[in-house]
Design a protein that fits this description.
single chain, about 325 residues, alpha+beta, six-stranded antiparallel sheet, 9 helices, globular, disordered N terminus
Length: about 325
């Protein structure tokens, strides 16, 4: 694991202190009504030390399925109104949270990387209607779930390390949300084209009501009104266009999910909601250099967007050379 010293450690402390200041300000303004967690506020310490402590006690709370189940049970029992922020099926949400926990624990000794990741996540979470007070309730429920999952072998010091880790991530998420208050939390789009290329594959063209800022190679979270609060990420299959029209290639991966709603039950004229664009698979500042792009299936979508952008950068006569190959027996 990487050392955690100097300016890196200072950044960890600064984010924790900033989050504490925001919490105090909200209380003074009367905007923070959530109950405080049972755990007394801990003195911040460095991420590497917290990481070692969390890993030491990790066998008591993993695999994360039971911990996360108890967390949401506690949260929805104590604050039932929060259930509306989540989709009807919690399966995807549970797996998403487990990945977030693993990412945090594995990278807590790299706070600059963690802060950048959760800043982007905070910007994206605005579309869900998440407010700073909701993080307080999540923290309280997490502490209860940790104690119940770990049993008598649990340590107060380990719990404090989990809380500091969570508050570090939350501080970055709040920063990301507050930095983007001038942009929409989500964009409304109208389906203007829906073509079935196969029974399980559709190409959707969506025109947004407002300009949608993105770069070729990025992706967006999409919500269908058929499944409220169930967001799934799809690559944008075109470079930015002046007509505010986006393209998505969607393959149905199962029944009852967002992909089925978009492929089998979405029609021209239907409306969708789009979260802010994300992703770093974009072109650099040297469009003249040679590039090799390899894709298969719906992975062609971001490559198509990149090639469109590349063709525009190089001009009509200097566009990229394209080649394609179909596997034997494929249709």
């Amino acid at each position: 694991m990487h050392a955690f010293t100097g300016t890196v450690g200072n950044e960890y402390h600064a984010l924790l202190a900033r989050h504490d200041a925001m919490r105090l300000r909200r209380r003074m303004l009367g905007q923070d009504r959530a109950p405080e967690p049972d755990l007394a506020r801990a003195v911040p310490c460095d991420g590497a030390a917290d990481q070692r402590l969390i890993v030491r006690y990790l066998p008591l709370v993993t695999p994360f399925d039971e911990l996360i189940g108890r967390l949401y049970d506690e949260m929805f029992t104590r604050w039932p109104s929060l259930r509306r922020l989540f989709p009807a099926s919690m399966e995807f949400q549970r797996s998403h949270l487990a990945r977030a926990f693993r990412y945090l624990i594995e990278n807590l000794d790299r706070p600059d990387e963690v802060a950048a990741f959760f800043t982007r996540l905070g910007r994206d979470h605005r579309k869900l209607g998440v407010r700073p007070v909701h993080y307080e309730t999540f923290e309280a429920a997490l502490c209860v779930a940790l104690r119940k999952s770990a049993g008598p072998g649990w340590s107060a010091a380990a719990e404090q390390a989990w809380v500091r880790m969570l508050r570090f991530a939350v501080a970055a998420m709040v920063d990301g949300a507050e930095a983007t208050l001038a942009e929409p939390a989500y964009w409304r789009g109208t389906v203007v084209g829906h073509e079935l290329r196969r029974p399980d594959l559709a190409v959707l063209r969506v025109r947004t009501d407002e300009p949608y800022p993105y770069r070729a190679g990025q992706y967006a979270a999409v919500e269908s009104p058929l499944l409220p609060q169930a967001w799934r990420q799809y690559s944008l299959a075109c470079a930015p266009r002046p007509v505010r029209e986006l393209e998505f290639h969607v393959r149905q991966t199962g029944t009852g999910g967002v992909s089925e709603a978009l492929v089998a039950h979405t029609r021209v004229g239907d409306t969708l909601r789009l979260g802010p664009a994300q992703g770093t698979m974009t072109l650099d500042d040297d469009p003249a250099r040679e590039l090799l792009m390899v894709a298969g299936g719906t992975g062609w979508a971001p490559v198509k967007a990149l090639l469109e952008e590349l063709a525009g950068c190089r001009g009509g006569g200097g566009g990229p050379a394209l080649g394609g190959r179909t596997a034997p027996g494929a249709r």
